[in-house]
Every structure is written in C-alpha cells, then in structure tokens.
Amino acid sequence: MTASQDRYTFDNAAPTAAQRVRLLAESIDGHTTEVLAGLGIAQGWRCLEVGPGAGTITAWLAARVGPRGRVTALDLDPRHVPGGPTIEVRQDDVRTAALPDAHFDLIHARLVLMHLPERDEVLRRLAGALRPGGLLVVSDWDTTWRRGLLIAASDPAAAGAFDAYQDALANLVVSNGGDLAWASRVPLAMRSTGLVGITGVGHNRLHAGGDAGCLLHAANTHQLADPLRRWGLTVEQIERVRAAMAHPDTLIHSYWLYTTVGRRPEE
C-alpha cells in the first residue's frame, strides 16, 4: 500500500459518520469535561474547538462561557455541530486557517493532531493563538498498545479478528499521515512552543459489548470497510468484530487517551 499523507482517515460526510461521532462523544466526553471543568473556565471566555465532531464539547463550553463568551468550532466539515447564539461554526482547515494572534482563552483539540502530518506546526500555530495565560488542551489516543484489547468474547475467534482489525486500522491511519505515538510526546511538543505549566492525564476504561465504546469500533468497520479490506482485513473478520462489539459477553479495554494541558506565559 502507498501512503497518501494528506487524507484525514474519518470523513464527516460518510453515511455512518453521524453515528460514529455520537458514539465517540458518548465514550470520552466524560473524561474531557472532567479535565475542562478543572481549568477555571469563566464567563466571557473566548474558546476555540478544533475538530468538534458531534459538537457536544462545543455546546458544553458555550454553556460555561455564557452570553458574553464565544466558542468557535473549526472543522473541515462541521456538518454535525449544532450552532447557537454564542457559537461560531467555521468550516476551515486548521493547517492553513487564519488564526488571530494572542486571542483565545482556551483552545481544545481532541483526536485531531495525531492524524495530521503537520501536527507540530499546527501545535505551534495554536499556541500562538492563545492570549497570555491562555490554555491549550490536546487529547489523542496512543494506539501503540493495541494487542489483546479484547479480553472476553463468546466467539473464540473474535480476539484474533479484533487484533487484525486494530492492525489494519493502525496501518490505514499511518498511511494517511497519522502518528500512533504522538499522544505520548505532546508534552515535549508543547514545551518546544514555549508553553508552561504542562500537565497531563491518561484515561482508559473497560467497555462491554453493546455500549458506546464497543459500538464505536463496529461503526469504524462500516465507515472504513473498503480501506480496511485493502489493508488485509477479511470480510469474515469484519463480521466477527461487528458481532463481538454488540454481544453482551464481550469486554474490551479502550485505547489510552492522553490529555495534555499547557499554558501560554503571562507577558
């Protein structure tokens, strides 16, 4: 397989994309809001969310910044993001979008930078768009640990199929310019931009068949069926993964999700 290096793996225009971003939100919004709630977000803040997905965190931020605040949701295809009186939905590419200098109190980017070949440069641009004292929050999966995530299933062959699916998905992401280990080096990348007070937390949980964390994998196999097959996943393996993700006997560990917070120094 040849690498494209310029294609985002998950297309918001795909027929199953709305379900996928909803399941993603159900799976990890609790972690995200727990981190954000501890950052002192105040009325009147100006926030930027990069890659808002279903828009659930955009709406959460808008409720906290109040009528005097502003939340900008920036995405290549923001069709799943609901608007609001204090929400600006902006269709643009974060790699090239014009960003105001020293403007935002908070910038949040979840499951975006790991997919972009220009992730280090994008991180520098985001850091420059923070006001002095502003906060940058970056969350990404670390998928370098993905073998053996499925620990229980009614089908004895499901674990092998799930591992094969994980490998095919990882190869697809890398072929499109992704970095499976980026999440673990975000703190150093933030430090290189001049951000300070850097903190981080890892999040991992167990999912049972039929819940959002399992159904997200099934949704991936629907949205990415053709490219996953090109990376060697068989139709039989895809069907085993889908069945296992819906079966109540299934237990899987999530990927580790690392969330890193950095602050632009006061001037």
Automatic annotation (TrEMBL):
SUPFAM superfamilies: S-adenosyl-L-methionine-dependent methyltransferases. It comes from the Bacteria. Pfam families: Methyltransf_11. GO terms for molecular function: S-adenosylmethionine-dependent methyltransferase activity. GO terms for biological process: methylation. The keyword Lyase does not apply. Keywords: Methyltransferase, Transferase. InterPro entries: Methyltransf_11 (IPR013216), SAM-dependent_MTases_sf (IPR029063). Residues 48-138 form the Methyltransferase type domain. This is Methyltransferase.
